[in-house]
Amino acid sequence: MYAVGRIILAGSHDKDFRQSLQLVFLHRLVTWIMNEPPSQPKNLRVVLICHHDAPIHFDGIARWLASWANLAGVVVIREPRKVLARRLRREWQRVGTFRLLDVLAFRFWYRFSHSRGDTEWLAQRQQQLNATYGPFDAATPKLEVSSPNSPESQRFIEQAKPDLIIALCKNILSERIFGIARRGAIVFHPGVCPEYRNAHGCFWALASDDLERVGLTVLKIDRGIDTGPVLGYFQAKYDEVRDTHVRIQHQVVLDNLDGIRELLVRFHSGEAGAIDVTGRKSHEWGQPWLSAYWRWKSSARRRRHAHHRA
To answer: CATH second-level architecture of 45-309?
Structure first.
């Protein structure tokens, strides 16, 4: 293609004609480059860690990973009920009895008000992923564990020899686990770090009227809670009056899969470094409160009303 273009240009004596041909040639070259399918770094070995009750992850995100990387294994976590009791105990120690009642009230209210609708919405997004990405290899190794930090999980991941671990789980990974991958373990955190670390960062940014920090942080896991090197931020469009926090925190991931893929490929190749967050406030948040949810929705409706009046 290049040789033909040069011959035509060299054989033309009309300056304007040559310039026109040059523009056409450059336009076609740029179009060809932009439409060229992205390279598939199948030498990048990835292990996915996720929960048994999140098909959007163990099926949908797994399909996406397998479309551009070597999905070397999937660790599926099925936690015993006593783990929830431990989390509630830690939340009680962190926020006290009154706020724990606020947390429990939110869980009860969400289950009967929005859980079914969000489940249906996630199923629709799952179908979209299935239509975009084919099924991954049925022979891909899988392991079900009660904890990603178990000896069985450690052996499984060591045998997979991953370059990256993608951890889409609530658990804090032990260094025995996140240190296995050659390039480390990556988390897709629903919240902008360091301002909104720990659980439900998108929810707390919305409840704090901090709309500029409703987004996703892709970061490398270290010994702290969402304190590792930040590799990138992503945002998505949402309707804060209609959408729940669950939909929004999934949208910031699902609407940015192409950008996340490019970031992970660049990180794997050493081209993407950490973003400097020196001097920014760092805060660790917890479970959603019903009072905070109502405050957010009330503010969202006022903003919508003010926008329509303006």
So the answer is: 3-Layer(aba) Sandwich (3.40)
d(CA 300, CA 41): 43
Q: What is the mean pLDDT of the chain?
A: 87
Are 62 and 48 in contact, with CB atoms under 8 Å apart? yes
Q: Can you name the residues that pair with 143 across neighbouring β-strands?
A: 75
Tokens 């479970």 locate to 287
pLDDT 10s digits, 252-291: 999 999 999 999 999 999 999 999 999 999 999 999 999 9
pLDDT digits (tens, 9 = 90+) for 177-235: 999 999 999 999 999 999 999 989 999 999 999 999 999 999 999 999 999 999 999 99
Q: Compute the CA torsion angle 137, 125, 117, 98 (nearest 10 deg).
A: 80
| Token code pair at residue 301 | 């409706």
d(CA 128, CA 123): 9
Residue spans of the domains in the chain: they are 2-35, 45-309
The tokens describing 4, both together, are 């033909």
Please give the helix or strand (H or E) that residue 103 lies within, else none. Answer: helix 97-113
**pLDDT above 80 (res 10):** no
Burial of 297 by CB count in 10 Å (0-12 exposed, 13-18 middle, 19+ buried)? middle
Distance CA 65, CA 162 (A): 13
Instruction: State the sign of the Cα–Cα–Cα–Cα dihedral 168, 173, 177, 179.
Output: positive
Judge whether 164 and 44 are in contact, CB under 8 Å.
yes
Three-state SS for 216?
Answer: strand
Tokens of 77: 């976590």
With contact defined as beta carbons under 8 Å apart, do 103 and 288 qualify?
Answer: yes
d(CA 96, CA 11): 82
